[in-house]
């Protein structure tokens, strides 16, 4: 019994010992020597147990591959595969050193399915799995004598310590080829590598087509990845070896800032590079970055000659043609198919005769285009000269760390960054350049000089204010007669102070309060012409005999100030014979005044609605007045540099000069539109009762068509000699309703003012009424614009559309609207401009 126990103990001890031994040899082995065989199931483990080498099957596959993966990391993360094209179908494969010294993978039939395939000088070799994840085949006697290493035969993963070869004479090095799919390590259709030609960059290809590129390496970062500066993992990461090997090769390496970090770059089966760091605490991979990630990182996302900007969202997505270029296929572009790209709007003259020579326009913060070449400049030659001389050169740039580059082909794959990037100079036809691009140096010199002199001037003015004023008074060619009684200073400064830093401050003569006071005899009652929207209008008489009209803002009126500024800004820029001219202004303490040309015949309403005076307005005159107003309005809407909506057109705002020519006045409420804008909203509805278009009165929407409505009302008033509002409360609600009523009964003629009745121009008057009715249609859509109105009036359009029945006037007369209008700030309902706030 005791014997038995002793034997048992012995056997057990032996067994345990054996087990231990095998375990130890198992786990410490990081190499295969000549006489060893690694069978499926056995593993090589690197010295500090970071990597393992052996047979594996990808998830959901039974095929056996030989590869390297991280030890102790779940799920299994494979970084290298040997027999990716020839998997084994069973577990009978083995790894060994062949007789010729190569490391081979054999199948159950002893057939070699994979080999390192080199010619070692000695067949006494050893394969070792290093701590970095590199599997090396070396001479057993001299381990530094490497014949082969897995780091030079990469699959899809770039590991720290790997050397990524770059050699311009060899060309593109597509070292990494991802798996075909998540479970199939065979080579997929993508590849990742370096394009060393021109300026060196990293590229992802799909077949032969580029899918992403890093932008040129500037010896610190890849310029197309500006965040590299902010990412400490990067900034200390990539290095390009130097000096080159004898054959001209240099190598990219990557060293993590913390060498104990496990980091990897892997190109996924779908052609995307992920950078991961192992998180030891959470025991999972942290994704550091993805390329291409943002939409604009996709190669040439916007097509040739265009720029992608991820911070923008245009109508056409994130793409825009570079300045001076336009979409090749506008429709596709608008439908967000950018593959057609952009083309030059104006071809380069390139030495041919042209008005202006080709020039360059600088784009900032750019990912520079692909396929540039680095050039070396001879002394005294600039890159601009070099590019300008070569007709195929489209752009040049200077990139710190690379030098001068030019692009002679199409400009491809450009991106605009919010931070970082490089400036690039795009070549454009002379006519596409604004003058200031001409010479940067001159620009700088001039601005410095300009600033200096401006400073000097301000200093002098400040120092000699008094004397200068006196001097100016003596010297100045004062627009309005006498130079003793009115002091005028042509200065934008005062206006600037008042209206703020407007870009286009008009240069308007400024008059002193005293000179105006004496011209208007201290604003005497006799000189009072009327009471306009936001102030009283006086007649002024300068001693030279020149007459002016002065609008004086009531001192307290805050609101008037707004209109005052508006009028200065607007009307000073407008020049048309049917617009009243602003001659100057006065800004002194609480006094704000505008000076206009004096209109001896006052305003249209003083004639039109006056029993006696109206007779002097025969049909010819009325017709001319209508035409004049229409042309003035068309100028505002279309022909001036700005698009202006007057918003307060009415009989009392049309002034008449000595020849009874109409002039539109009072631009206090006018608004400037930009050209593409066709309507705007305001919460402050201003206008005059009876002239306001329905959409404006009720919703605060105004457009040129709301002016057309006012014009229509005015025209009906001129033809009929009656006020629109005088029909309030009547059966038809308004003049418009009355006109409709007569028209639908075929009695339009009755609308014509009796004082002009019996004229031979009845058809013309009827035409005016018809057009007036079209202008006062309730729906914006049914109203013509001023251009068509003029054509209609000049009988150039023979067939006028039928007007529809107007409904709106009845709303306008309902109590509801009146309450709203009456609730605020209204002086009188009849003649004076109303202001109301519509609650929103
Ligand atoms: C390998 O086996 C050969 C004989 O086949 C032997 O001569 C040699 O010493 C062995 N080498 C090692 C390292 O075990
Ligand atoms: C291996 O090398 C030794 C001497 O270096 C040689 O004798 C032997 O034949 C070689 N074996 C094979 C299979 O080539
Ligand atoms: C494989 O070849 C080795 C020698 O290279 C031999 O010893 C072994 O028996 C062979 N195995 C099979 C299954 O053929
Ligand atoms: C290893 O890489 C070299 C070039 O780097 C290549 O010629 C060779 O085919 C590769 N071998 C394997 C087994 O992938
Ligand atoms: C990694 O683990 C952390 C903590 O457990 C978790 O918050 C995070 O979502 C995980 N990340 C991934 C990619 O699974
Ligand atoms: C985009 O436009 C190109 C031609 O420029 C055309 O070949 C392609 O089919 C278009 N793609 C789509 C999705 O419409
Ligand atoms: C864009 O430029 C490339 C390179 O010059 C050219 O091959 C391609 O045809 C161009 N694409 C279009 C749509 O013109």
- Ends: how far apart? 105 Å
Helix/strand-derived category reads: alpha+beta
CATH hierarchy: architecture of the largest domain: Orthogonal Bundle
Number of helices: 18
- The CATH class label of the largest domain is Mainly Alpha
What is the count of distinct domains?
A: 6
Q: What is the β-strand count?
A: 50
> What small molecules are bound in this structure?
2-acetamido-2-deoxy-beta-D-glucopyranose
Using the CA coordinates, give the radius of gyration: 43 Å
Average pLDDT level: 81
Largest sheet: 8 strands, mixed
Quaternary state reads: single chain
Strand content: 25-35%
Task: Give the helix level as a range of percent.
Answer: 10-25%
- What gross morphology would you assign? elongated
Kindly report the CATH topology of the largest domain. Answer: Transferase(Phosphotransferase), domain 1
Features:
five-stranded antiparallel β-sheet; 18 helices; alpha+beta; elongated; eight-stranded mixed β-sheet; Agglutinin, subunit A; 840 residues
Topology of helices and strands:
Elements: H1 2-28, E1 31-32, E2 37-39, E3 43-45, E4 51-56, E5 65-70, E6 78-81, E7 94-97, E8 103-106, E9 112-115, E10 125-129, E11 135-139, E12 146-149, E13 157-158, E14 164-166, E15 173-176, E16 179-181, E17 184-187, E18 190-195, E19 201-206, E20 209-213, H2 232-235, E21 238-240, E22 250-254, E23 263-267, E24 273-279, E25 284-291, E26 306-308, E27 319-321, E28 325-327, H3 330-334, E29 342-344, E30 359-367, E31 373-375, H4 383-389, E32 395-399, E33 403-407, E34 414-416, E35 422-428, H5 440-463, H6 465-475, E36 488-490, H7 492-499, E37 509-511, H8 513-519, E38 528-532, E39 535-541, E40 547-553, H9 558-571, E41 582-588, E42 591-597, H10 604-608, H11 619-639, E43 643-645, E44 654-656, E45 662-664, E46 671-673, E47 680-681, E48 684-687, H12 694-699, E49 701-702, H13 704-720, H14 735-744, H15 762-775, H16 786-793, H17 808-813, H18 815-822, E50 834-837
Parallel strand pairs: 26-34
Antiparallel strand pairs: 1-10, 2-7, 3-4, 4-5, 5-6, 7-8, 8-9, 10-11, 11-12, 13-23, 14-22, 15-18, 16-17, 18-19, 19-20, 21-22, 23-24, 24-25, 26-27, 28-29, 30-34, 30-35, 31-33, 32-33, 32-35, 36-37, 38-39, 39-40, 40-42, 41-42, 43-46, 44-45, 47-49, 48-50
Signal peptide: 1-23
Subcellular location: Cell membrane
Disulfide bonds: 302-319
């Amino acid at each position: 019994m005791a014997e038995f126990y002793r034997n048992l103990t012995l056997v057990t001890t032996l067994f345990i010992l054996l087990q231990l031994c095998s375990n130890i040899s198992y786990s410490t082995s990081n190499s295969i020597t000549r006489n060893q065989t690694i069978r499926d199931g056995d593993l090589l483990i690197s010295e500090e147990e970071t990597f393992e080498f052996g047979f594996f099957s990808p998830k959901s596959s039974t095929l056996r591959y030989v590869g390297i993966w991280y030890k102790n990391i779940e799920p299994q993360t494979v970084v290298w595969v040997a027999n990716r094209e020839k998997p084994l179908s069973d577990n009978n494969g083995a790894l060994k050193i062949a007789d010729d010294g190569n490391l081979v993978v054999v199948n159950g039939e002893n057939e070699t399915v994979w080999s390192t395939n080199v010619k070692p000088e000695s067949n006494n070799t050893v394969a070792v799995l290093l701590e970095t994840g590199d599997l090396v085949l070396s001479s057993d006697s001299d381990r530094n004598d490497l014949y082969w290493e897995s780091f030079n035969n990469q699959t899809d993963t770039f590991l720290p310590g790997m050397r990524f070869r770059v050699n311009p004479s060899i060309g593109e090095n597509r070292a990494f080829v991802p798996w075909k799919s998540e479970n199939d390590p065979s080579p997929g259709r993508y590849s990742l590598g370096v394009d060393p030609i021109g300026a060196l960059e990293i590229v992802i290809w799909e077949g032969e087509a580029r899918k992403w590129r890093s932008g040129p390496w500037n010896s610190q970062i890849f310029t197309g990845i500006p965040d590299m500066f902010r990412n400490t993992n990067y900034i200390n990461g990539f290095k390009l070896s130097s000096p080159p090997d004898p054959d001209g090769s240099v190598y990219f390496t990557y060293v993590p800032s913390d060498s104990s970090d496990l980091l990897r770059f892997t190109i996924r089966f779908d052609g995307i590079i992920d950078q991961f760091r192992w998180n030891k605490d959470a025991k999972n991979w942290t994704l550091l970055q993805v390329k291409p990630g943002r939409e604009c990182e996709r190669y040439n996302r916007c097509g040739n000659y265009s720029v992608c900007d991820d911070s923008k969202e245009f109508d056409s997505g994130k793409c825009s043609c570079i300045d001076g270029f336009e979409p090749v296929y506008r429709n596709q572009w608008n439908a967000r198919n950018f593959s057609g790209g952009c083309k030059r709007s104006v071809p380069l003259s390139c030495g041919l005769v042209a008005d202006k020579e080709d020039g360059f326009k600088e784009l900032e913060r750019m990912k520079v285009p692909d396929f540039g070449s680095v050039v070396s400049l001879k002394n005294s030659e600039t890159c601009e000269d070099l590019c300008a001389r070569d007709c195929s050169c489209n752009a040049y740039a200077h990139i710190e760390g690379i030098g001068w580059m030019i692009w002679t082909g199409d400009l491809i794959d450009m991106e605009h960054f919010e931070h970082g990037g490089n400036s690039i100079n795009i070549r454009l036809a002379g006519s596409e350049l604004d003058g200031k691009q001409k010479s940067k140096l001159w620009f700088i010199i001039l601005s410095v000089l300009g600033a200096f002199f401006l400073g000097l001037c301000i200093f002098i003015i400040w120092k000699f204010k008094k004397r200068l004023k006196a001097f100016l008074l003596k010297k100045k060619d004062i627009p309005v007669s006498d130079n003793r009684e009115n002091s005028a200073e042509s200065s934008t400064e005062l206006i600037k102070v008042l209206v703020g830093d407007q870009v286009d401050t008009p240069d308007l003569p400024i008059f002193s309060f005293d000179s105006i006071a004496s011209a208007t005899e201290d604003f005497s009652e006799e000189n009072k012409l009327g009471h306009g929207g936001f102030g009283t209008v006086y007649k002024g008489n300068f001693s030279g005999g020149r007459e002016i009209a002065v609008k004086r803002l009531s001192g307290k009126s805050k609101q008037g100030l707004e209109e005052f500024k508006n009028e200065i800004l607007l009307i000073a820029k407008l020049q048309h014979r049917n617009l009243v001219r602003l001659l100057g202004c006065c800004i002194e303490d609480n006094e704000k005044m505008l000076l206009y040309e004096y209109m001896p015949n006052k305003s249209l309403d003083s004639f039109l609605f006056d029993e006696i005076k109206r007779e002097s307005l025969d049909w010819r005159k009325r017709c001319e007045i209508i035409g004049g107003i229409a042309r003035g309005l068309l100028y505002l809407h279309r022909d001036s540099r700005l698009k202006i909506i007057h918003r307060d057109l009415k009989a009392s705002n049309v002034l008449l000069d000595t020849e009874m020519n109409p002039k539109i006045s009072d631009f206090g409420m006018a608004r400037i539109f930009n050209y593409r804008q066709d309507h705007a909203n305001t919460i402050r509805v201003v206008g005059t009762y009876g002239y306001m278009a329905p959409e404006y009165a009720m919703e605060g929407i105004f457009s040129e068509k709301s002016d057309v409505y006012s014009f229509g009302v005015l025209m009906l008033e001129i033809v009929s000699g009656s006020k629109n509002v005088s029909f309030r409360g009547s059966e038809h609600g308004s003049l418009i309703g009355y006109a409709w009523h007569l028209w639908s009964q075929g009695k339009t003629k009755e609308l014509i003012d009796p004082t002009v009745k019996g004229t031979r121009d009845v058809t013309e008057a009827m035409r005016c009424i018809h057009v007036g009715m079209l202008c006062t249609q309730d729906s914006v859509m049914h109203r013509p614009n001023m251009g068509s109105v003029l054509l209609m009036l000049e009988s150039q359009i023979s067939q006028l559309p039928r007007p529809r029945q107007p409904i709106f006037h009845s709303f306008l007369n309902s109590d509801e609207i009146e309450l709203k209008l009456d609730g605020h700030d209204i002086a009188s309902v009849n003649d004076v401009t109303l202001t109301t706030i519509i609650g929103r």
